[in-house]
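Today's session is about reading a structure prediction critically. Students often jump straight to the picture, but the first step is always the sequence itself: look for stretches that repeat, for charged clusters, for runs of hydrophobic residues. Only then move on to the predicted structure, which in these notes is written as discrete structure tokens rather than atom positions. Here is the chain we will use throughout the hour.
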Amino acid sequence: MAGLKYMSGFGNEFSSEDPRCPGSLPEGQNNPQVCPYGLYAEQLSGSAFTCPRPANKRSWLYRILPSVKHKPFTPLPCGNLTENWNEVEPDPNQLRWLPFTIPKSSEKKVDFAAGLHTVCGAGDAKSRNGIGIHMYTCNTSMVDRCFNNSDGDFLIVPQQGEILITTEFGKMMVEPNEICVIQQGMRFSVDVFGETRGYILEVYGAHFEIPDLGPIGANGLANPRDFLCPVAWYEDRKVATGYTIINKYQGKLFACQQDFSPFNVVAWHGNYTPYKYNLKNFMVINCVAFDHADPSIFTVLTAKSTRPGVAIADFVIFPPRWGVADHTFRPPYYHRNCMSEFMGLIKGHYEAKEEGFQPGGASLHSIMTPHGPDAECFEKNSTTDLQPERVAEGTMAFMFESSFSMAVTKWGLQTCQRLDKSYYQCWEPLRSHFNPNWKPSKQ
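Below is the predicted structure for this chain, in token form.
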């Protein structure tokens, strides 16, 4: 959207005020007796007050009316959004979904909040430990409605259609091949411009961080300067017919009414903000000698658990890059993993499975479920002449990897009717190449 401005940096101490109200940020203190322009001071805390400074997250919002002014919350039907991980029996099979169906606007108007569908997840929002993976499929903008997630953070991955996200901190336009994070407790509304689809990774009890770089050094992967957060923007708008706040709380949906827009923050400062990131800016590091590097080298964001080196969830991408490894089977290796791997495809073709895995679809390889290249990929890459080549050109696949053993919902296994039951067949043609008489070649 032309004219939108952003501030760059990850986890910075930002400050912003709408240019229509210069001087709206108080000077030298957070909550003066009387705020400039007669505004209310409201703190949004994303961490406990006593967290160490590096992990302490909070922002101060200066708004026309405080968010506490609303009618009581009442239960709202959850549709296909759920935290019930016991709807159906566990399924340890390799699972793949065809592109998830987007409702036609000519048949039914569906906005972002109504178009949320839970595919899989684990853990519990009440104990603040777990994740949920959702799809959003919608065709109309949210009108006088906004969403608030009291359970955790949303990492949103648009796949089809750009989305204009209005938050209490300002506006962000997020296009396919970009991602955004709306952190816990931030109210937002989504405008769409046609049939729209994307993926959501929700984490409870932790916030996303850029991963430590270790021996890589000071630069690389997702650089902090490439993350963008919005600048202050407000509307002083009365809504006589009622503005609806939808609140996801303990895995359920609730709604309340108020007679004004919640996007009435004239100025704000702090380090707890929504943000977006363009995946094309990822600085890829890859093997330049031999062997296939572990996919953790492509981690954009991580939500850490309390166990060192173990993530509640990682967001990993497989971007365009050079493949140059010698004497190496270059596609991903065959694998059984103590982590769950949910993959999606934004565009193009995934290198290990050229067919079947489509943009807008997904796959899930659960804990210790075998997976790897299909038979065609193995045969081709076992005999090809190894030359430097571009890999994944025009493609962007990604993975939500988690230490949780995720359960698939009834919607994911049955109701959506997009489960590809023939997925296992891509490995059926694999044949034995074992030769008991093999001898090493003389150099």
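Discussion point for the tutorial: The two ends are 61 Å apart (CA to CA).
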